[in-house]
Write a structure and sequence with these properties.
Length: 294
């Protein structure tokens, strides 16, 4: 399903981290890369246009060479201006099953103010989006790539919503292609249960344990031998981030409602919080536009 991916090229992150993520995707069948560079029109005035475009082109050519060296079939494209809708259209026209972009850690406000591609796409991608965590420092001596591949240990946090069910279909497809370990996680949201529904927690736990085990059994029948389930109680965002660290998770997959900036600020969104703060790549599966986002 991810045989061809669109990769957004930017100057402000180390490409090594994105390349590391792509090598993990290669294990899942990725063979072709459309490498897209988005130029800022404010930098392209008559005085510096040739100089700036030369720097960008040199950067793009170096990334293309590295991808080619690792066996990917690569095509490149340069675009000018605001690009989110253009990226969606380009990905669909070129039949890319996934958009990949480097993502430095951000707060909500930082995401809102920052012009990086990752956080623009996070709130408007119509295509599955893989955000690869990149370090804040540009010092090449401080580079420390992840120890494992994103295919080593996949975490799927689910709230049992309709979009989570759609995302589980993607989990099944990915797991069948060679994920070594899958952990299915549900966090009973303390803020929604305590105090008025606390007396029903045991019933909730029984029902949700059965749901998780049914999903695990489905993955085992699909051929994924190492599947575990985990049911927790607390803050979903905090617990998911803790599990990522404690269980040496190498990638996360979640559904994304895509509510938009204003509702994000006031209501929050667990998947986007994880995408902003997780130390590992996060794959967001968008809810089809026009559905579910109220």
């Amino acid at each position: 399903m991810f045989e061809k991916v669109l990769v957004i090229s930017e100057l402000h992150y180390h490409f090594d981290y994105v390349l590391h993520g792509l090598l993990g995707l290669k294990k899942l069948g990725t063979r072709s890369v459309l490498l897209v560079q988005c130029l800022n029109p404010q930098e392209l005035n008559d005085t510096v246009s040739t100089f700036v475009t030369g720097i960008y082109k040199e950067h793009l050519d170096a990334q293309e060479m590295r991808l080619t060296e690792h066996g990917f079939a690569v095509t490149t494209r340069q675009m000018i201006g605001v690009f989110r809708d253009s990226i969606n259209e380009l990905a669909r026209n070129e039949q890319c099953g996934l958009v990949v972009v480097g993502a430095p850690e951000r707060t909500m406000l930082g995401s809102l103010l920052d012009g990086g591609a990752a956080y623009h796409m996070m709130h408007g991608s119509l295509i599955p989006l893989l955000l690869v965590r990149t370090p804040p420092s540009m010092d090449p001596h401080e580079l420390k790539l992840p120890d494992g591949s994103l295919t080593d240990h996949l975490l799927f946090p689910t709230d049992f919503s309709e979009n989570a069910a759609r995302t589980f279909d993607v989990v099944r497809q990915i797991a069948a292609k060679g994920i070594r370990k899958v952990t299915l996680l549900h966090v009973q949201d303390k803020a929604k249960i305590d105090p008025h529904l606390l007396g029903q927690l045991e019933a909730f736990n029984q029902k949700d344990t059965a749901r998780l085990e049914e999903m695990a059994q489905t993955l085992r029948q699909d051929g994924c031998a190492d599947v575990s389930t985990l049911l927790l109680y607390g803050s979903p965002t905090s617990e998911i981030l803790r599990i990522i660290a404690d269980m040496k998770v190498t990638s996360v997959i979640m559904g994304s409602q895509g509510r938009g900036w204003i509702r994000e600020i006031y209501l929050g969104n667990v998947s986007h919080s994880i995408a902003r703060h997780a130390s590992v790549p996060v794959l967001l599966i968008p809810f089809p536009r026009g559905e579910g986002a109220k």
